[in-house]
Design brief:
The protein is an alpha/beta fold and 555 residues long. 48% of the residues lie in helices and 10% in strands. It contains 24 helices and eleven strands. It has a six-stranded mixed sheet with strand order 1-2-11-10-8-9, sandwiched between helices. A five-stranded parallel sheet has the order 4-3-5-6-7, sandwiched between helices. It is globular and about 80 Å long. The two termini are 48 Å apart. Bound molecules: 6-O-phosphono-beta-D-fructofuranose (F6P).
């Protein structure tokens, strides 16, 4: 690994941004808007069916120039090309990073003639097409001859969040008579609930696991298999009711899934970037292959935009660099994602994994400890619900919290009055977060509510809205597969941009391994009567308490 490169924090643009921040920190966005009538035009971009308004950020033109300079000093355009060329950017695992190939269009080789992955991608897409058609026409049926009506996706992390989000978000495109469940948690109540709502004769289980060793998935898959056999009374039934998506077909076969029921995944697709592969089989089964391809097309639109658009008008670059601006120069610790589109209510959870599992790291890709902050905490919820829960903190708390507002101009089911009110709320919240309220405006509002003199003065501090809270607004006309593909790819590439700026390998996740190993050890210990291992006092005490109260048999 290459240690001779200076850390990003010692680059000229980084140092200039540091100095520049102390000027910008003193400015209020209220004044910036008042001084510059062109601010919206200057700081907004439209591409791939999305309008990004980033004018409500604590920036002036020089800020963007410096951020672009930083991106150039870090050779962002070259890194983008390296990803699209299929270089092994995941250096700790010696793997290319080619989720963009999954949505690549056209007949040619990609990323190049020598490392063409498209034959494999097209083969699996055809396999998905055949399956979805067979389920749709009834050529594929359950063991007893019933048509498939229920899909149960068993997977966790990237093998769950992306497909679950897309299936939920595109519910108005669901094929009639089909339902989907997503089971990820070890707590069997989630599996139980899905099974209770399913008819074994017409249920198809999708076991999604790149590694095919993930404890949660294997445990749920085994229980689902027992349930099916119990109900249908024949182990042979598994063949018509279980499919697997994995890069370890030999393990899926050991589990009992037939060779032809296994969909291939590749080591060059990271789990959290995999919904575009057969990991998205639940999506294809629920909305049909034509619409699944539209989803891929939307992501491809964003890939092309990311690869070919100058940095200044490049949506993922803008989102990524603005994130760097706050995290590294304003010391913010979190970033909120606030969809004003009920269909996207789980987007924040998907983005949590995409961003935090990718860039929640403390050493550079060369193994050097960073001296700057990396990924902030990503969080959020449906914006409209958030207004009545956590927005108080954003308006009057002590933290600076940059946020993304995403809003559909037309929401899914148009009962009169809902659409306009929803957009109005999104715009109102980002406006109030930005403007706040001046002292004079507050006094006037209090006078209008009948307060005067001492009473008014006492109320003032509680009614203060400082404003100056930054946000991006992403608008689109109406959510459909293509727009959704573009939105998800936008965030994927934002992750890449920030990874380059922090000089991280965004594509491994070593931090999750130790917990898995320790859990295995503790599971063994919990199942024996007198475990002898010496642990820390807290774990020791908790284990003893659990053992005393537990119902399971100990050896
Ligand atoms: O434990 C983390 C993780 O490896 C994620 O990166 C991944 O998305 C998830 O677990 C599921 O992994 P798999 O698809 O191998 O079951």
């Amino acid at each position: 690994m290459d240690k001779h490169l200076p850390l990003p924090s010692s680059l000229p643009a980084w140092l200039k941004l540091n100095a520049h921040q102390s000027t910008v920190e003193r400015l209020h966005m209220r004044e910036l808007f008042a001084e510059d009538p062109e601010r919206f035009q200057r700081f907004s971009v439209e591409a791939c069916g999305l309008l990004l308004d980033y004018s409500k950020n604590r920036i002036v033109p020089e800020t963007m120039e410096l951020l672009m300079a930083l991106a150039r000093e870090l050779e962002l355009p070259r890194w983008i090309e390296r990803m699209f060329a299929g270089e092994k950017l995941n250096n700790t695992e010696e793997r290319a990073v080619l989720h963009v190939a999954l949505r690549h269009r056209g007949e040619g080789a990609f990323p190049g003639k020598d490392n063409d992955v498209m034959p494999a991608v097209r083969r699996v897409l055809r396999q998905m097409e055949t399956l979805t058609e067979a389920v749709e026409t009834g050529a594929w049926r359950g063991h007893t001859g019933k048509r498939i009506r229920t899909i149960i996706n068993i997977g966790i992390g990237g093998s769950d969040l992306g497909p679950a989000l897309v299936v939920e978000a595109l519910d108005r495109f669901h094929r009639e008579g089909m339902q989907a469940h997503f089971v990820s948690n070890l707590d069997s109540s989630q599996l139980d609930q899905a099974l209770a709502e399913s008819d074994p004769e017409s249920t198809l289980f999708l076991i999604i696991s790149k590694s095919f060793t993930t404890q949660e998935t294997m445990c749920n898959a085994a229980s689902a298999q027992s349930w099916l056999i119990q109900h249908l009374g024949d182990p042979a039934a598994v063949a018509s009711h279980f499919l697997a998506v994995t890069s370890k077909p030999e393990l899926a076969m050991e589990f009992g899934i037939g060779h032809d029921s296994i969909f291939e995944m590749w080591d060059w697709v990271g789990g959290r970037f995999s919904l575009w592969s057969a990991v998205g089989l639940s999506i294809a089964l629920m909305i049909g292959m034509r619409r699944f391809r539209e989803l891929l097309a939307g992501a491809h639109d964003m890939d092309e935009h990311f690869r070919h658009t100058p940095l200044e008008q490049n949506l993922p670059v803008l989102l990524g660099l603005l994130g760097i601006w706050y995290r590294n120069f304003f010391d913010t610790s979190s970033h909120a994602i606030l969809p004003y589109d009920y269909s996207l209510r789980t987007l924040p959870q998907w983005a949590e994994q995409a961003e935090m599992e990718s860039n929640g790291k403390r050493v550079t890709r060369d193994g050097e400890t960073v001296d700057y902050a990396t990924c902030p905490v990503i969080w959020g919820a449906s914006g409209n619900n958030g207004q009545h829960a956590f927005f108080q903190l954003m308006h009057q708390g002590t933290d600076l919290i940059p946020a993304d507002f995403l809003a559909a101009i037309r929401c899914q089911e148009a009962w009169p009055g809902h659409e306009a009110a929803l957009v109005a709320n999104a715009l109102a919240q980002s406006r109030v977060l930005m403007l706040g309220r001046t002292d004079e405006e507050m006094r006037e509002a209090l006078r209008n509510s009948g307060l005067r003199g001492k009473e008014l003065a006492e109320m003032l501090p509680f009614r203060e809205y400082p404003g100056n809270q930054p946000s991006n607004t992403i608008l689109y006309e109406r959510l459909n597969p293509r727009i959704l593909g573009a939105i998800l790819a936008l965030y994927e590439h934002k992750v890449f941009v920030q990874g380059v700026c922090w000089r991280l390998n965004s594509f491994d996740q070593w931090g999750v391994e130790l917990g898995k190993q320790v859990a295995k050890g503790l599971l063994r210990d919990l199942q024996i009567q007198h475990p002898e291992r010496v642990r820390d006092g807290s774990t020791e005490g908790l284990m003893a308490y659990v053992q005393k109260k537990s119902r399971w048999d100990k050896k």
